[in-house]
Design goal:
Blueprint: H1 19-38, H2 44-53, H3 59-72
Helix pairs in contact: 1-3, 2-3
């Protein structure tokens, strides 16, 4: 099976993302907990928009954010 985002091999039998994008997704979700506390209840969409706008946000995170945006609609 291929990653939805980059066509690398997906190792997890129940996954749709390669190891790199899955790690990025996990990091994004873990960081949301801290942002939610720091920004007093920031919504998931607001969080994604803020992270995407950061200059230092990496390509894999931006890929995952794009996928999250597609799934949210």
């Amino acid at each position: 099976m291929e990653c939805k985002l980059c066509r690398r091999e997906v190792r997890a039998k129940d996954g749709s993302l390669c190891d790199y994008h899955q790690d990025a997704r996990n990091s994004l979700r873990r960081a949301y907990e801290a942002w939610n506390i720091a920004y007093s209840g920031i919504s998931w969409r607001e969080y994604l928009n803020k992270v995407k706008a950061l200059e230092d946000t990496g390509a894999w995170i931006k890929d995952v954010i794009s996928l999250e945006d597609e799934n949210a609609d």
